[in-house]
Amino acid sequence: MSDDGLPEPDRVEGAPHPRETLRVIGQGAAEAEFLDAFNTGRLHHGWLISGPRGVGKATLAWSIARFLLATPLAQDDGLFGAPPPPTTLDVAPDHPVARRVLALSDPGLFLLRRGPNEKGDRLASEILVKEVRKLGNFFALSAADGGRRVVIVDAADDLNTQAANAILKMLEEPPARTTILLISHQPSGLLPTIRSRCRMLRLHPLAAPEMTQALDQAGIIPEGNAAALAELSGGSVGEAVRLINLGGLKMYGELVGLLGSLPRLDRARALKLAEAAATRGAEERLDLLLGLTDLMLARLARSGAVGHPPVTEVATGEAELMARLAPTPQMARAWADCAQEIGARARHGRAVNLDPAALVLDTVFKIQKTAAG
Contact at 8 Å (CB) between 147 and 108? Predict the structure, then answer.
């Protein structure tokens, strides 16, 4: 929980907060790029850390923050000459800076994220300019010690227009000894002037071995095999945690089993799937089901387009199913069209509060129609 008693907007439910994760996994190239800039005296004042959700952007930002706050601004060469340049961002967990950062009490650190709404009873849907204005006090109070200052913006995508312009002004006239780390899932949506004043660090989806390491570090035991989880989550640890929490691999297996009966539909199985999505409190499961359906249709279309099923089979029987339902480029096109239509109908259904069971059955019947050719 944040200081105001509201949930932390930058925490994935069921996983440690990124500031609690001490090691960045699978993003060695981005780490090396930052260290090279630091060691060669080319440390930029603004860094835009981009990539898909859940691949470690915030974890990297917190690692950089600890590293900068724990590293002196200037080091006396001393009797034995200058120390060797650092080769890692790692800071020992028992280091005073690491402990203060974990407690959000380091005077050189400012975390900018969504705060309370005007009523103070829930989180605002975006980062408001009043949150950015708090940086003025931070810079005034932290200037006295003469050390480094680090600002983490998680996420820059949440900045409203006024807040974005306020951050832009700071990037144009950066305070002394300050590094601003902006996390972005979709940097193309940011102001071009913000992008142009930052150096980009691009992060990439995790492969199966890296996914296993990341989940192990978070203390999470995945269901099924890591390769399937990495495939279904798109290499995103955050999405993998969501899949684990909601039984995503099992749900995808149920979809494969249902489509396995096509073009003759197993109606009992379809009704069971629809009823599960219509139970009270099942909104997250419905969203996941619709998302997994879209992913399956995309995999079907890709299978027909390239002439073979995906290399990684997420559920038993998936490869045979895709070879049978998408044998030609023509069927690949049909599945792509089907996915587009189902997506539009699902968005409309959610917007008008259509009965979830009816929405699921409508989706299934459209898939059956496409399978029947």
Answer: yes
For residue 134, what are its two tokens? Answer: 């708090």
Residue at 209 is within a domain: no
Q: Is 273 in the same domain as 343?
A: yes
Other CB atoms within a 10 A radius of the CB of residue 84 amount to 7
Give domain status of residue 142, yes or no.
Answer: yes
pLDDT tens figures, 165-184: 999 999 999 998 999 999 99
Are the C-beta atoms of residues 106 and 145 closer than 8 Å to each other?
no
Domain that holds residue 342: 247-371
The answer, as to whether pTM is greater than 0.90, is: no
- Residues contacting 271, CB < 8 A, separation 6+: 361
For every residue of 20-72, DSSP letters joined together read G-----S-HHHHHHHHHHHHTT---SEEEEE-STTSSHHHHHHHHHHHHHHS-
Task: Look at residue 166 and tell me if it is in a domain.
Answer: yes
Which DSSP symbol is given to 148? -
The pLDDT confidence band at residue 40, using thresholds 50, 70 and 90, is very high
Nearest to 222 by CA among 149, 230, 177: 230
- Which residues 6+ apart lie within 8 Å of 95 measured at CB? 66, 70
* Rounded Cα distance, 89 and 31, in Å: 7
Give the Cα-Cα-Cα angle 274, 277, 278 (nearest 5 degrees).
Answer: 90
